[in-house]
Design brief:
Order of helices and strands: EHHEEEHEEEEHEHEEEH
Number of strands: 12
Largest sheet: 8 strands, mixed
Number of helices: 6
Structural class: alpha/beta
Shape: globular
Distance between the termini: 35 Å
Helix content: 25-40%
CATH architecture: 3-Layer(aba) Sandwich
Strand content: 25-35%
CATH topology: Rossmann fold
Radius of gyration: 18 Å
Oligomer: single chain
CATH class: Alpha Beta
């Protein structure tokens, strides 16, 4: 339970264990990527828990029976570049038929306001559940902007998934988009003066790709 509406903290022991390994400063790049992939797959179970199903007839080796299959259009993962791509592989392991969209946003170092430089969506995105992914919800500005942009494109079914969130970012996001469910592995203490989550895990993009 959290004090934020529509926010689910995924407290599964495996998620928390792997997140602790991810936080360690000495975790190398290859292990960091693999851990993020594994955590993202586990988060995807929770994010997709309420996908609609419909009964179909299936012939087993013994008889014909009614059994559930996912109904309607398959979902779409929207990655907030570049760190969001680190979450895609794990989620696609679970839902390999999902479409993938990308939005490029960079944070102005002075104002911390996101500026869009790229957007690519499926043509039928408005017919799909879109799960926006970004490892960190810090100030919340990028996530708020990404969700606002796909709402403008006509998307009505939206969820957001991240590894870590700061209370400040959650407050900003839920205030801007109270209709969007948020799934997070942990809510950390606070933001520092540079807009980084504390205790956090550092810059997720840099740790994923070995850059600085």
């Amino acid at each position: 339970m959290t004090s934020f509406p529509n926010v689910t903290v995924v407290g599964h022991p495996l998620v928390q264990h792997k997140l602790t390994l991810l936080r360690r400063a000495e975790t190398p790049t290859a292990a960091f990527r693999q851990l993020m992939r594994e955590i993202s797959l586990l988060l995807a179970y929770e994010v997709t828990r309420h996908l609609p199903t419909e009964a179909v007839q299936v012939r087993t080796p013994l008889e014909t029976a009614a059994a559930p299959l996912l109904a309607g259009k398959k979902l779409c993962f929207l990655s907030i570049l570049r760190a969001g791509n680190g979450m895609l592989d794990g989620m696609l392991d679970l839902v390999p038929s999902a479409r993938v969209a990308h939005i490029g946003l960079y944070r102005d170092p002075q104002t911390l306001i996101p500026i869009q430089y790229y957007l690519k969506l499926p043509d039928d995105v408005r017919e799909r559940l879109v799960i926006v992914v970004d490892p960190m919800l810090a100030t919340g500005h990028s996530a708020v902007a990404a969700v606002e942009r796909i709402k403008q494109a006509g998307v009505a079914q939206i969820s957001f998934a991240c590894l870590l969130a700061a209370p400040e970012g959650l407050a900003a996001f839920t205030r801007a988009h109270p209709d969007v469910a948020v799934y997070v592995a942990a809510i950390d203490r606070q933001l520092d003066e540079h807009g980084y989550i504390r205790p956090g895990l550092g810059d997720a993009g840099d740790r994923l790709y070995g850059t600085r």
